[in-house]
Amino acid sequence: MTVKLDLSPEIEAELLAQAQTEGMSLDQFLKHKLETLVLTVPPDRRETISPDIWEQELESWFDSFPQGTVLPEAAFQRDDWYPDRW
């Protein structure tokens, strides 16, 4: 489907800057934003989405969180939790 939008030069420039920041073309950026908008509508206001799309959105949400530090194996040893008790 093709949609034509008449945007002000300022809005167009801002959208283009955001798209470039994301490493996308303006078309890809707008498509992604519209898909995100549609998929974030509350469930009672839309029809159910396919499990594949739901899983993709969930994975995308998980990936948005910063990666934590991996704890060393010793952190899980009881002796290291309470060194003064052993």
What would you call the quaternary organization? single chain
Structural class: mainly alpha
Total DSSP E strands = 0
List the secondary-structure elements in sequence, H or E: HHHH
What form results from the Cα inertia axes? elongated
Helix percentage range: 40-55%
Supply Rg: 22 Å
Largest sheet: none
Count of helix runs: 4
Main features:
mainly alpha, 86 residues, elongated, 51% helix
Task: Provide the fold topology.
Elements: H1 9-21, H2 26-39, H3 51-63, H4 78-81
Helix pairs in contact: 1-2
Description:
The structure is a single chain. The protein is mainly alpha-helical and 86 residues long. The protein has a domain at 7-47. It has helices spanning 9-21, 26-39, 51-63, 78-81. The longest helix is centred in the middle third of the chain and has 14 residues, at 26-39. It starts with 8 loop residues before the first helix and ends in a 5-residue tail after the last helix. The model has no long low-confidence stretch (mean pLDDT 82).
Write a brief structural summary:
The chain is mainly alpha-helical.
